[in-house]
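User: Sorry, folds how?
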Amino acid sequence: MAGSRARRRQAKAPSGADRIKERAAADARETKNFNAGRKPGEARVDWLQTNTVDLPRLGADAYGPWVFGDTVVRGMYRTLSGYSVADGEQRWSLKFGANICAVPNEASTDGKLVIGLMNGTSDKADCAELQMVDLRTGKAGWKKSVDRKGVQDLLSDLAMGISGDVVTFGRTSVSNAYRVADGTELNIEQPGNCRPFAFASGPRMIAATSCLTDDADVHNDQVQEFDPATGKPKWTYKVKTGWQVDHFYSVSPLVVSLKKRGQWGIVALNENGTYRSQMTGKGDYAVRCADEYAATVRNIDGCIGAAADANTFYLATKQVTSDTAPNNAVVAFDLDTGKQKWRVESPAGQTVQPLRMAGSDLLVQIEATYRKSGGLATVAPSGGALRTVLRYPASTSRVESSLFLPRVVYTGGRSFLMSAAVREQDDKEELKTKTMIVFSG
């Protein structure tokens, strides 16, 4: 009898496919309810997605989103999946035998992505496999093993980037580069004691390079642009001794964050790598970069809270709390002089983050609170008031504020908000965690 009851209970347990269908139906009902309660001027909720992946004990980082054509792609744990941008229906899902461990922030312009995978599932496994995936079809392309040698290499932080048709896999002591199309390795070695340790994604192959010195505590960094056709440096900018390249806030124009023992500086470079300016002016600024909270990825680009056009650099200030309500501002700097030009305050009780340029205007994320929904706005290059692009429904504020450090992609009139990780400790809770919500005008 006991054995029969156990078999009946096991038979009633929903399969993975059934659980996904049930969750999708629940998300669709919630989306319908959000839209039914919309007020005039509020954006439409196109779809909502809840986590359906049974994750390891400490949860997992989420990677993406990458939007290509009518497909949005997200990676988490051992899966990369593509969904319809219109309704969130899954179009393809690619499962791997080991964890995703590194990704570039951007895909190639023709929709190819190269990700890093662990080379096993044991405690001794390393992030040393590269896998190309076509985002349009979800088909896996070439796969390569990176030969990581020595303790320094194995313990290095990893940084990936895609520049044109080149994907880079950077570490403290060495970097590898491959053609995205076919995996052919590109020789980027250079004579001397300097080695690139991280490349930014974008239209130019920009690298942060470290040069060995007799004193390991004295940093001697460089910024370089490489020629993707030859793998050779086109120019080199030598950073002042003792300072390290921290992040690239923009590749074109080139704006570089530098650090030195608790100090922070921002330098702009000309297209040929010569010095342009240094940002000046007092203020507490805040930029959110993935390497500060992600468990594995240590990319040097893709920060939220900084953006630039040809003449101006935009930066978010740290939030201040008054009567329990957070506020901050966006500050604009002249890239030719480094001096502050103007300042725009956030809406009352909310914070704002520069995202990117939208034509000639700055696109700004208005972040949600538990009781107040967020949205997107623009600011003119000359400053002035925030102009609303999308105002998310008031009914979605709790979902928005529950997303873990959400990444925002705005394209084709749609705003994709994706949680950067699922960190719930309880299995039941992690399967209730909202991971993405999509809005349109």
Notes: The first strand starts at residue 44 and ends at 50. The chain has five helices and 35 strands. Confidence is low (pLDDT under 50) at residues 4-11. The radius of gyration is 23 Å.
